Amino acid sequence: MFYGAGTDTQIKRGSGLANGLVNSKVAKATDSPFSTRAFSVNYSDNGLFGVHVVAPREKIDEVVRATSGVCKEIAAGSIPKDAVEGAKQRLKASLLMSDEKASNVLEDIAVETAVLGTVPATSEILAKIDAVTTGSVTGAAKKALGGKMSLTTVGKGGDGPYLCEL
What we know:
It is a single chain. The protein is mainly alpha-helical. It has one domain (2-156): CATH 3.30.830.10. The chain is built from 7 helices and 2 strands. Strands 1-2 form a two-stranded antiparallel sheet. Strand 1 (35-42) and strand 2 (47-54) form a beta hairpin.
């Protein structure tokens, strides 16, 4: 779901790359420069999923409202199959590019051994990603985004919407 909602570009100094549902739909709602990035913090018994939004002060209201609207659409199950397929491709590319750095490989081996008790082959991980369905992503999205929202503002947030307005 993280890669489906939207992540930072993997291309250094890239521009005009609206990947993921949130980025592409917010881009249609504003003519302002903005950045949205999904994030996920996971624990064994709960977690936090959200979207980090950056926009100029005078445009923050429309960007936050557009972002909130997309998150509500996703929570309602409106996730196109092509968005899921694109997310799977971005995730696989990210994993494969990450393995190009030796320190990342060593860290992955340590974490996988500690958590799983084994180190799965790359082909096994890629096959599990390929097996993800739109239905399973929709279920996870409803669970992650279907609860009560929260809103945090850093900086001069007076131009943004209040949570009750979203």
